[in-house]
Amino acid sequence: MAPDSHRDSSKPLLLAGIDLPAALKRFSGNGELLLDLLRNFGKKWSGAGEALRATLSSGDLQQVRLTVHTLRGVAGNLSMSGVVAAAEALERALKRGDHESVPLYLEKLENTLNPVLAGLERLPPPSPTPVATGRMDRPQLERRISELAGLLRQHDMRAVACFTTLRAYLEGGGVAERLTEQIERLDFKAAGKSLAEIVELLSLDAPT
C-alpha cells in the first residue's frame, strides 16, 4: 500500500526533504506504517530547534549531543537525507568543541528540519485505532512477544507493526511507555532491553 493511500491517486504525496520511494522500500512497501512513523516524527520533533537552543543556552552540551544523535538516527530511517547531513554537521562541531560554530550549525539544522515538519503537518489523519477487546491468552501473548523480540534483534522494520498489535496488551507502567517511545524512534536495540524488562515484570515465558 502506497503512502498516499488516503489521497486521490492522481495527486501523489510529496513531502519536502523526504525520499518517499526510498523510505517506502525500507518499510517493505507498508505505506500505512510509514505514514504512522512520519506522523510520530512530526509530533516528536515539532519545536526541536527551540528546545535545542534552550538546552544549549543552559550549557548541557551532552544532552544536546544526545538529542541531535537521536534525531539523526530517526531521520535516517525515514530517508530525510538533508536532516541527517545537517545533524551530522552539528554533531561534529559539538564533538570537536567548536563552540563558535555550533549556533550556526544549529540554525542550518533548523532551516533543514522546519520544511520537513511543515510538510508532515499536512499529512492525512490516521485511521481510527481499533480498541483491543478482551485479553490475549498467556501462550499467545508469549508467542507474539517472542516474535517481536526476534524482529527487534534483526532490526527488522516489521517490528513496528508487530508492536502495534501488542501495545494494548502490554503492562509495565513506565517501562511500557519507554518501550513505546523507543519503538517510535526505531531504537530497536534499546527496545529489546525494555521488552526483556516487561517479560521479567510479567513473569512470562517468552525468550527475548
Quick description:
This protein is mainly α and 208 residues long. Helices cover 64% and strands 0% of the residues.
Give the arrangement of secondary structure elements:
Layout: H1 20-26, H2 31-45, H3 48-57, H4 61-77, H5 81-95, H6 102-120, H7 138-153, H8 158-166, H9 174-184, H10 188-201
Helix pairs in contact: 2-6, 3-6, 4-5, 5-6, 7-8, 7-10, 9-10
Describe this structure in words.
This protein is mainly alpha-helical and 208 residues long. The protein folds into 2 domains: 20-120, HPT domain (Four Helix Bundle (Hemerythrin (Met), subunit A)), CATH 1.20.120; 138-201, no CATH class. The protein is 64% helix and 0% strand. The chain is built from 10 helices and no strands. It has helices at residues 20-26, 31-45, 48-57, 61-77, 81-95, 102-120, 138-153, 158-166, 174-184, 188-201. Helix 5 (81-95) packs antiparallel against helix 6 (102-120), helix 7 (138-153) packs antiparallel against helix 8 and helix 7 (138-153) packs antiparallel against helix 10 (188-201). The longest helix has 19 residues, at 102-120. The relative contact order is 0.12.
